[in-house]
Amino acid sequence: MTRFPTNLPLISFSFSAVVVLFLFLLLGPIPAQIEARKAHVISFRSANLYPEGIAWDPSAQHFLLGSFHDRKIVSVSDAGVAETLISDPDLPVNVTFLGLAVDYLHSRLLVAVHAADPLPPFDALAAYDLGTRRRLFLSPLPTIENDTNRPTANGVAVDFKGNAYVTNSAGNYIWKVNDRGEASIFSRSKAFSAHAVDRESPFSYCGINGVAYVSKGYLLVVQSNTGKMFKVSEDDGTARLVLLNKDLPLADGIAVRNDGVVFVVSQKMAWVVKSQDSWGEGVVYDEIDLEEERFPTSLTVGAEGRVYVIYGHVLEGIMGKSGREVFGIEEVRSEKENEEESVWIYVLVGLGLAYFLFWRFQMRKLISNLDKKTN
Fold first, then answer.
1. Can you tell me the distance from the alpha carbon of 160 to that of 298, in angstroms, rounded to the nearest whole number?
2. How many C-beta atoms surround the C-beta of residue 115 within 10 A?
3. Where are the alpha helices (DSSP H) in 181-235?
4. So where does this one cross the membrane (predicted)?
5. What values do phi and psi take at 36, rounded to 5?
6. What angle (nearest 5°) sits at the alpha carbon of residue 71, between those of residues 152 and 296?
7. Which portions of the chain are predicted below pLDDT 50?
8. How far apart, in whole angstroms, are the C-alpha atoms of residue 242 and residue 283?
């Protein structure tokens, strides 16, 4: 009578030992891999730049930064190589480039231009072709009649049609500039002035500030002097408060990651904010301490969905100081998210191991039954 080969269990055992060893090796390096990938830190030199705004150009794979006084845009590579990308001496002397947004669908850079006191009032949106580096238009931003507040063109966002949205931090309203450079006042929602402001607090004069466009058809705007977030319809400018579990005091820049998670920056920290209902409500999921003395102001989403903050030392520029050469761009990472990712990796590998052990048990049982039948 034919007998089932007795060496099969040995082969099965050898194979299983290899697989278990593989899983052990896979499990072992996981924490090290997560810990080893530290936040990306870029240090670069650009004398007296004092950048307030930052944007990422996906086509050229570099960061774009505005200058506080020099009427220029500087590009910075991953390795920290900085060079002047755009220089526009036709603008008024000493104007400040604040918010920046890359319109990658139309290969344009959109920049909020502001002249701070004691310079004559000047607020505009400048558009530059990223290929030729030429200015496409310079659109003065209209003011409201009898408005005693001097405007401050600050944050910039752009939609898929090429429409730009610019926040007026002093007047608490939003401008819209279409792809042809035609500017208008887009949103003067009462929601922007519905919350009390502590006039004794730092930067109490700064209202709506950072703005980001969400592809579902609305803007997300943060307000510095109240710590509130608003959802603004791109159709008619209607705004309503996003209900958060806590305020975001001195909120400045805002960026939306590809997965819909929002990052908001202040001078002291960055908040990770999530929503399950398209921003009717939201939850501050994590808080990340930043270096206050380096005065972080703005965020952008760079390569591979990584979020970066600019350390531009802008307060020095506001106070009239000069001479600084070194500035920084740093990746902002949520340790809480990293921990969750680590847990899920363990869960998936654990499930794989459990499945394999179950399969091995079934195979041993099958081989045992076959061996009995052959006997």
1. 22
2. 20
3. none
4. 343-361
5. -70, -30
6. 60
7. 1-13, 15, 20, 29-36, 342-349
8. 10
pLDDT at 375: 58
Q: What single string gives the DSSP state of each residue in 277-289?
A: SSSSEEEEEEEEE
231: three-class secondary structure by DSSP: strand
Q: Which two tokens stand for residue 95?
A: 């104007």
**Are 213 and 255 in contact, with CB atoms under 8 Å apart?**
no
Alpha-carbon distances of 59 from 40, 56, 91, rounded to whole Å: 20, 9, 27
The span from the CA of 66 to the CA of 85, in Å, is 10
Sheet containing 326-331: order of strands: 41-45, 326-331, 307-311, 296-301
**pTM for the model:** 0.83
What are the CA-CA distances from residue 114 to residues 60, 140, 150 (Å)?
27, 10, 11
CA atoms of 137 and 150, how far apart (whole Å): 23
Pairing state between β 243-244 and 281-289: parallel
Task: Give Cβ neighbours of residue 248 (< 8 Å, ≥ 6 apart).
Answer: 222, 227, 228, 229, 264, 266, 271, 273, 284
Lay out the sheet containing 82-87: strands in order across.
54-57, 62-66, 72-76, 82-87
Question: What is the rounded distance in angstroms from the CA atom of residue 108 to the CA atom of residue 102?
Answer: 6
Q: Residue 35's pLDDT is what? A: 47
- C-beta separation of 240 from 233 below 8 A: no
Closest C-alpha among 253, 326, 310 to residue 51 = 310
CA distances in angstroms from 195 to 250, 277, 287, 292, listed in the order given? 14, 23, 24, 26
pLDDT confidence of residue 201: 86
Residue-wise pLDDT for 74-128, tens only, equals 999 999 999 999 999 999 999 999 999 999 999 999 999 999 999 999 999 999 9
For tokens 């921990």, name the residue: 339
Q: What pLDDT score was predicted for residue 202?
A: 82
Q: Which long-range contacts (CB under 8 A, 24 or more apart) does 227-231 make?
A: 227/251, 228/195, 229/264, 229/273, 229/279, 229/282, 230/189, 230/191, 230/192, 231/279, 231/280
- At position 315, the amino acid (one-letter code) is L
